[in-house]
Design a protein that fits this description.
This protein has 358 residues and is an alpha/beta fold. It has helices spanning 23-38, 50-57, 66-91, 109-124, 147-157, 211-223, 238-243, 260-266, 280-286, 331-337, and strands at 4-9, 42-47, 96-101, 128-133, 162-167, 187-188, 227-232, 250-252, 274-278, 299-304, 311-315, 321-326, 352-354. The chain has ten helices and 13 strands.
Length: 358
């Protein structure tokens, strides 16, 4: 049964074609979340729309730096966006809490756990966390790919049962959604073919993301044991339909649930501080049915400047990326132990995440 839900609302769901905020759609989605709350569900909203709201409120000249433009629009629009949610949910008898984050907040394990505890505390009190990227300070390397990535990270953080990505189409199609010959792909599992060939590289008018990002984040979340739905947020009653298994959407079947540290690591490829190259024997051991940690005897070489607790990327002898792990000690200690037997693992199994073999 789906109890804890992370629902991502895309910019193209809550804006009209003109770029103006679609207040009736926002109100409808809040009403639908209220319905879920009345059924005892815990809900986290990851919402886009701040930049679109700011663009509506403030006209900026074209000559202004594009990054500065976005920061100004986000700083202004975030106020209007969160006030809209606060008023609508208050009318329905619910309190909300604003949570603004950057990618940096997910990098450090201790910081990550503090944020996780905060979100879980809000949920335990019946408060709806409304999460968004802090666009005012998030630029370049600190930016999420888009809010689909943020929603996927959040779902992993709180051990959500389901991740619902709302967009303006019913899901992933075998061709352009507007083509009558295209068919909706209703179910995706580990045996499904690569769907990226079906997706055109287009993006929302008011957001950074596109369907390819949704596909990648959905696959990653499903691999962690989270059920994922890509659905049409403009369709009335879509959230209840999803929970009742009546929705026309794309559903990603979840794999067995991964432990919480592995969920943190699964999204850590952009945060790694060092890289470890391992030999064939170590690679076979890690992918065998026997639980194995990564020992220094299997390490061929390493690079980067890392300390205990940092994320490390693991590659095999041919340079193929095979996984991520948390360092049990720093680069100096590893340099003293590399290639030696009977040493403490550089990466313990509990903090090891292996990519699916292609």
């Amino acid at each position: 049964m789906l109890q804890t839900l992370v629902i991502k609302i895309g910019s193209n769901v809550i804006t009209e074609n003109s770029g103006m905020p679609d207040f009736s759609r926002i109100k409808s989605l809040c009403s639908q979340v209220n319905s879920l709350k009345n059924k005892g569900k815990k809900v986290i909203l990851v919402t886009s729309g701040a930049v679109a709201f700011g663009r509506k409120n403030i006209h900026l000249q074209d000559k202004i730096n594009p990054v500065l433009k976005k920061q100004i629009w986000a700083a202004n629009g975030q106020i209007a966006l969160i006030n809209t949610y606060q008023k609508l949910f208050a009318d329905l008898g619910h309190s909300i809490a604003q949570v603004l984050v950057t990618k940096e907040d997910f990098r450090d394990r201790k910081h990550y756990l503090h944020m996780k505890n905060c979100l879980e505390g809000l949920l335990s009190l019946g408060i709806i966390p409304v999460v968004n990227e802090n666009d005012t300070v998030a630029i370049t390397e600190l930016m999420f790919t888009d809010n689909d990535e943020l929603a996927s990270l959040t779902a992993a953080m709180v051990n959500a049962d389901a991740l619902i990505l709302l967009t303006n189409v019913n899901g992933i199609y075998t061709g352009p959604p507007e083509d009558t010959n295209s068919m909706l792909i209703e179910k995706v599992d580990q045996q499904s073919q690569d769907l990226s060939n079906f997706i055109q590289a287009s993006k929302s008018s008011f957001g950074r993301g596109g369907m390819l990002t949704k596909l990648n984040m959905a696959k990653k979340s499903a691999n962690l044991g989270i059920e994922v739905f890509i659905a049409n947020g403009k369709k009335e009653g879509i959230l209840d339909e999803i929970l009742d298994r009546r929705a026309q959407c794309t559903r990603f079947e979840p794999s067995p649930v991964k432990h919480s540290p592995k969920k943190w690591l699964a999204h850590g490829e952009q945060y790694y501080k060092g890289e470890i190259k391992i030999n064939d024997g170590a690679e076979k051991a890690l992918f065998s049915n026997k639980i194995s940690s990564l020992l220094p005897v299997g390490v061929v070489s390493f690079s980067g400047d890392f300390e205990k607790g940092d994320i490390l990327r693991i590659v095999n002898e041919s340079g193929k990326r095979i996984g991520l792990g948390r360092a049990e000690y720093g680069m100096k200690s590893l340099g003293e132990k590399i290639g030696q037997k009977n040493q403490k693992p550089i990466i313990h199994y509990d903090y090891l995440y292996l990519f699916i073999h292609e």
